[in-house]
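#structure-requests
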Amino acid sequence: MNFILIALVVLGGIALVAAVILYICSKKFAVHEDPRIGQVASVLPGANCGGCGFAGCSGMADALVKGADSGSIEGLFCPVGGSAVMGQVADLLGMAVANSEPKVAVVRCNGTCELRKRIAVYDGLKTCTAVNACGAGETGCGFGCLGCGDCVSACQFGAIQINLETGLPEVDEDKCIGCGACAKACPRHVIELRKKGPKGRRVYVRCVNKDKGAAAMKACKAACIGCGKCLKECKFEAITVENNLSYIDPDKCRMCRKCEAACPTGAIVAVNFPPRKPKAEPGVEVATAAKNGSENKEEA
């Protein structure tokens, strides 16, 4: 019986000493979290999509509080919550927040099944990452969309789906919040975040093929061939041609659409614009002018 009592006393003493040590360590090495971090995190939507550049909303909240302490939260923006949420965060931290233009994901590949013929059959793991690791994929274009849907799996908002007829992903602008998860998931960097633009209008090159013209056209009939005709048409220095590929800077583009008309392969697309008015034939214009002139004489 004495042995049991001694054991209990010894164990109790050890437990008491351990508790004292743990208490001292917790006080000495305690990490005090700014209560504003929790307040900001509660305002954020909690999507943890990574579109803000941080692993989750808690990381974003911590960065916002640190930014407020340093005097500015410029450059920090939550794409899911948008300006409304950032306004609440700014009020909470007593800061001014700059309005950030909303962005949307665009698919820079126009190589449909019709325009980009299949030259091989892939039999393996159906992910874009796996197919890309094996080579060019099932078509002759080593730059275009692989169509396995890694971007679809990465999107938490159901904003992107694969069109079964074209084999290409399509973005629903109303659902896309510009988090960039689909762009990060694409192994070929076919998806890009671009400014939505006024009235949702955008002009961009829907191709990422860097092969020379003849090789690019052989792989896809809608490929950019780097001919530079769009560059010559642009008066705003918004277009650059590098590595046989044209690129339109959304910050400089004035959306005149002259580049779209000049592109011989249709690689440049204009989204959400009204249809162009059909050009009247020269003979019709002359006849119309003559008719109007005769009518004016009769009235005189």
